[in-house]
From TrEMBL:
Belongs to the ABC transporter superfamily. Gene3D superfamilies: P-loop containing nucleotide triphosphate hydrolases. NCBIfam families: ccmA. This is Heme ABC exporter ATP-binding protein CcmA. Residues 6-205 form the ABC transporter domain. Signal peptide: none annotated. One of its GO terms (molecular function) is ATP binding.
Amino acid sequence: MSSLIVDVAGLTVELGANPVLRDLELAVEQGEIVAVVGPNGSGKSTLLRCLAGLQPPTSGTVRVFGAEPADDAAFWRSVALLGDEPAWYPGLTAREHLELMGAVHAEARMTVESALEVFALAERADAPPLNLSTGQRQRLCLAATLLRPSTLLLLDEPERGLDAGFRVRLARLLEEYADEGGTVVMATHDETLAGAARQVSPTGVTA
Ligand SMILES: Nc1ncnc2c1ncn2[C@@H]1O[C@H](COP(=O)(O)OP(=O)(O)OP(=O)(O)O)[C@@H](O)[C@H]1O
C-alpha cells in the first residue's frame, strides 16, 4: 500500500489574473513533517487551501489520501486544518469550546483536561476566548485542532502569536503526532518549526 499522503503534480493556481502557483510538484509520505516556507505572497496559504479542497487548481492534480480533496465530512474525518482564527461561540468559555469539539468527535485524540494542560490553558479555561491574549487564543485554536481525530494536519502559520518557548513545545508536539503515524504540512515563517521539518517552497524549489 502506498504511504503517499499528499501527491501534487503540475499544480498551477491563478487568482484573478495573478499566477500564484506554477507547475508545483509535492509528494509527502506518511509520518513526514513538511514546512512550506517562502516570502509573503509566495503562495503558501494557497497551497494549503488546495490541499484542504478549499481552492480548486487552475490546472494540475492534487491528491490527498489518494483522492481529490473534497470539502466534505469524510475528508474532514482524517484532516484537521488550522487556518485563520474561527468565530467563537458567544457565552462559551475556552474549556467549553474544547468540550464542544470533544462532543462532536467520538474518538478525540486527548481529553479536554489534557488539552488544557498541554496547551498551557488550564488557568484561563473558564475565560471566554475573546478575553484571552493573542497567543493564548492561538493555543486554544491549536488545542481544538489537535484534539480532533486526524491523520493529516494542515497548519497555516501555527506560530502566530506564540512565544519562543511555546514554539519549541509545538515543534515537539508535531514530532509526537508524526511519531504516532500522522503527517503534517504547515506554512510557516518560524525557524524552529521549519528547522524540525522537511522544507519545501511554493515556487517548487526545495529550500
Ligand atoms: N482572492 C485573491 N485574488 C487575487 N490574488 C490573491 C487572492 N488571494 C491571494 N492572492 C494573492 O496570491 C498570492 C499568494 O497569496 P498567499 O496568501 O498564498 O501567500 P503566502 O505565501 O501564504 O503569504 P504570507 O506569508 O503573507 O501568509 C499573493 O500575491 C496574494 O496577494
